[in-house]
Every structure is written in structure tokens, then in C-alpha cells.
């Protein structure tokens, strides 16, 4: 195993083990490290939505950004770039987050749920793979969000420095933000433990270019298993950790912070899969790239948070009771709109390159 592949495996393994440890220390079960759920909680902590059970400024996210930012600075890989379809990225992230909250988790949590024995997550992962496969068809036909260009260096520091300031406020213990008294938002590991876990994953993910969607995409496109090793390492190490601490419970029913509606588990993650494939990376990868100075990815993170706030403000998000009708409708509408974006992007690129018909490779 070469050094680059070892880093990917190490990132997945550390992420898996830390996720189990964070649950033991207080995080919600099978949610040791869910990027979508934690961004949603942060949106609530900032007052963007008022769903009383999911409000908390998750230190894991701020630690993740800080770790990636510091690693990029040390290795001289921090570079301010942007200007590549920011509004389109915002919308794709918005729609993808709605899908993830219908499923109840991001690609990382889907694997963590499966590692905890939640077979509903297996259905969601099938939907994720289907979504990535659909997204790849658009990429093969020329869909592109464009190339980011160099920007003034100050642009690349706004996102990570904002996160560091928020982390320092959280670490100080100041009562500034909204916080849940019941529900998942009230369940969390000690602040220092969470921040340290985030910092460790941030450094490793920055160095390894870890990406859940990238692994699936590259395997389907090129039969390249480099990033896919991280996907499996996360599953195996989290599974081993859950077995070691007695947290493994296999089945569909009664799983923590999950529902057993197979259709909407599949459809929610299908929407997420198409969206993040067109975006070029999973929520974790988007955070790492934003920490490296990519302002387009910072806009993507804002899109995720806005999507989460919208989903909770308007009753779209699922709960252990199931998926509300509004959430089902939003998922279908989201899939249609994202497919339109994919077709339109592929058609525009094909036409610009000489009028190739839609559906053919350019």
C-alpha cells in the first residue's frame, strides 16, 4: 500500500473510531460525526431555524475546518480561488441537504449507521450510488461548474477564520448561541473532546483528499479504488468499534434517529448523490476545500446550512416517525430540478463544443 492510499485508509479508520468514541462520550447514537446533521445543528445554534431539538454549535465542524486550514497553511496549499458558478453551487447544496435530511444523514453518517447495524442505511447507500451514477452521466456529457480562478488572498481566509472565531467562543463557554434542551441537539460529547476530534480529522482529510462521493465516482468512472478505500475503512473501523463497545444492533426497526421508510431513504439519498456528484465532492470534502481557500466551496457550505434551515422551518425534514408529505414532495421536486440542471449544463457544454446532441459524449 503506497503512502497516499495509506493516508486515505488512515483518515477513514480514524474517522470511524472517533465517531464511535464521540457517541460513547455523549453524541447521538450512530451520529458520531455527521456533516449534514452537524451543519443543521449549527444553523439552529445561529438562529437560522428554531427546531428546538436540533440546536447546537458542533465543535467537530469548527475543529475540522481549523485542522484543514492549519494543514493547508503548513503545506503551502492554502490558495484563494473561486468564481465558479457560485449560485448554482448554492442551489445544488441546498437541494442535496434536503435529500440528506429526508434520509437523516450525509454519506458519512450513512456508513456510520450501517456500521451500527441500521439496515435502512444500506437502502440509503443504494440510493446514493444510484444518484452518483446519474450524476456521472451528466459529467460524461460535459457538465461542468467551470474552473475557479485566483482571487485576492483575503477571500480565502474569511471562511476558516470565521470558523476559528466561532470555535473560540464555543470553547470559552460563553452562552451566546441557541442550544437544545432535549433531543439530538442536547446530546453531545465534551466540547474539548469534540474539537480535538474535529481537528484530527481535519488534518488527515486535508492531507488525504478524503471524499465519500469521490470514491464512488472514481470507481464507477475509472475503476479507480484509491478513494474508495477510505469508504470501506470508515465502515470497517466503525463496525469494529461498535462491536467492541456493544453498540451494534442489526435490523430495520427501532434504529436511533432513523426511519424505516425504504422508498424515501432511497430517494433522499438519490437526490443527495446527484447533487454532490455535480458539486464535485461530499459535504466533508467541500468543508476541507473551503478551509483551503476555495470560496466556491464556502458558498456550497452556506447552501447546505440554508437547505437545512429551510427543511426544518417548513417541515420537510424526516424524523424517526417517518417522512412528512412536504418532505416527500420536496424530494421529488428537488430531483426534477437537479436533473434539469444536469441536462441543461450538459446541453450547454455540448452546444458550445460544436452542437453535439444531448445524450452523446462531447
Write a brief caption for the model:
With 362 residues, this protein is mostly helical.
Key structural traits:
single chain, 362 residues, mainly alpha, two-stranded antiparallel sheet, 2 strands, globular, disordered C terminus
Topology:
Layout: H1 3-24, H2 35-45, H3 59-74, E1 81-82, H4 86-103, H5 107-115, H6 119-140, E2 149-150, H7 153-172, H8 191-208, H9 212-222, H10 228-245, H11 262-279, H12 283-291, H13 295-313, H14 325-352
Helix pairs in contact: 1-8, 1-10, 2-13, 3-7, 3-8, 3-12, 4-11, 4-13, 4-14, 5-6, 5-10, 6-9, 6-11, 9-10, 11-14, 12-13
What can you see in these coordinates?
By secondary structure, the protein is mostly helical. The chain has one domain. The protein is 66% helix and 1% strand. The protein contains 14 helices and 2 strands, in the order H-H-H-E-H-H-H-E-H-H-H-H-H-H-H-H. It has helices at 3-24, 35-45, 59-74, 86-103, 107-115, 119-140, 153-172, 191-208, 212-222, 228-245, 262-279, 283-291, 295-313, 325-352, and strands at residues 81-82, 149-150. The protein has a two-stranded antiparallel sheet. Helix 4 (86-103) crosses helix 13 (295-313). The radius of gyration is 19 Å and the shape is globular. Mean pLDDT is 95; it is low at 353-362. Pfam families: Sulf_transp. This is Glutamate synthase large chain. Keywords: Membrane, Transmembrane, Transmembrane helix.
Helix and strand pattern: HHHEHHHEHHHHHHHH
Low-confidence stretches: 353-362
The beta-strand count equals 2
SS strand fraction: under 5%
**Radius of gyration from the CA trace?**
19 Å
Helix content: 55-70%
Distance between the ends: 36 Å
Q: Largest sheet, if any?
A: 2 strands, antiparallel
> What is the approximate shape?
globular
The total number of structural domains is 1
What structural class do you assign from the helix and strand content? mainly alpha
Amino acid at each position: 500500500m503506497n503512502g497516499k492510499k495509506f493516508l486515505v485508509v488512515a483518515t477513514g479508520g480514524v474517522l470511524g473510531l472517533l465517531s464511535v468514541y464521540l457517541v460513547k462520550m455523549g453524541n447521538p447514537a450512530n451520529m458520531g460525526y455527521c456533516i449534514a446533521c452537524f451543519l443543521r445543528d449549527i444553523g439552529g445554534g445561529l438562529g437560522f431555524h428554531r427546531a428546538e431539538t436540533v440546536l447546537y454549535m458542533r465543535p467537530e465542524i469548527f475543529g475540522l475546518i481549523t485542522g484543514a486550514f492549519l494543514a493547508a497553511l503548513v503545506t503551502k496549499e492554502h490558495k484563494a480561488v473561486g468564481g465558479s458558478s457560485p449560485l448554482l453551487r448554492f442551489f445544488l447544496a441546498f437541494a442535496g441537504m434536503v435529500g440528506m435530511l429526508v434520509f437523516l444523514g450525509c454519506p458519512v453518517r450513512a456508513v456510520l449507521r450501517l456500521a451500527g447495524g441500521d439496515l435502512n442505511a444500506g437502502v440509503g447507500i443504494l440510493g446514493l450510488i444510484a444518484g452518483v451514477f446519474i450524476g456521472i452521466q451528466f459529467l460524461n456529457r460535459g457538465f461542468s461548474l467551470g474552473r475557479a480562478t485566483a482571487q485576492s488572498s483575503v477571500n480565502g481566509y474569511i471562511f476558516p477564520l470565521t470558523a476559528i472565531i466561532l470555535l473560540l467562543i464555543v470553547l470559552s463557554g460563553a452562552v451566546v448561541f441557541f442550544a437544545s434542551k432535549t433531543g439530538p441537539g442536547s446530546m453531545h460529547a465534551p466540547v474539548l473532546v469534540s474539537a480535538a476530534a474535529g481537528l484530527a480529522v481535519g488534518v488527515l482529510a486535508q492531507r488525504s483528499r478524503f471524499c465519500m462521493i469521490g470514491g464512488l465516482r472514481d470507481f464507477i468512472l475509472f475503476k479507480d479504488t484509491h478513494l474508495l478505500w477510505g469508504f470501506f475503512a470508515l465502515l470497517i473501523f466503525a463496525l469494529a468499534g461498535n462491536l467492541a463497545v456493544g453498540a451494534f444492533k442489526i435490523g430495520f426497526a427501532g434504529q436511533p434517529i432513523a426511519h424505516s421508510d425504504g422508498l424515501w431513504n432511497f430517494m433522499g439519498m438519490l437526490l443527495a448523490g446527484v447533487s454532490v456528484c455535480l458539486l464535485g465532492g461530499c459535504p466533508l470534502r467541500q468543508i476541507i476545500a473551503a478551509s483551503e481557500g476555495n470560496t466556491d466551496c464556502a458558498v456550497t457550505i452556506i447552501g447546505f446550512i440554508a437547505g437545512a434551515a429551510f427543511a426544518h422551518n417548513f417541515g420537510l425534514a424526516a424524523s424517526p416517525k417517518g417522512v412528512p408529505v412536504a418532505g416527500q414532495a420536496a424530494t421529488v421536486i428537488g430531483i426534477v430540478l437537479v436533473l434539469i440542471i444536469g441536462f441543461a449544463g450538459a446541453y450547454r457544454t455540448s452546444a458550445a463544443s460544436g452542437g453535439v446532441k444531448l445524450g452523446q459524449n462531447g
